Amino acid sequence: MQLLMYRPTTSAVWADALFASMLQSSDGPSAGQVRQAVAAAVRAYGGRGCAERVAQEFGDHPETAVARMRWAREVVGEVFAVPPRPERHGRRRRPGPSISGLRRWRAVRT
User: What is the pTM of this model?
Assistant: First the structure.
């Protein structure tokens, strides 16, 4: 059996941090408020601590946690969106991730 380590993407960490923050969807937060809330949550709990809070909430209140995570992912996608890079001259790019950029992280049993 091969063990693989989960390496969360930056946007996943941001979504966890927004989920763990005190900010509410009903507040109608601005982009600046979202950035501040994410930064404060990461400073307070760390990336792993935010993920632990998300897991705890999904265990305790799964019906509300799903809606909150959906909101957090949507807001993070809007606030932290990266504009597309301009195309290089003479090179066509296929959609999807580049194969050279993919990595696999493994944990080895000893």
Answer: 0.68
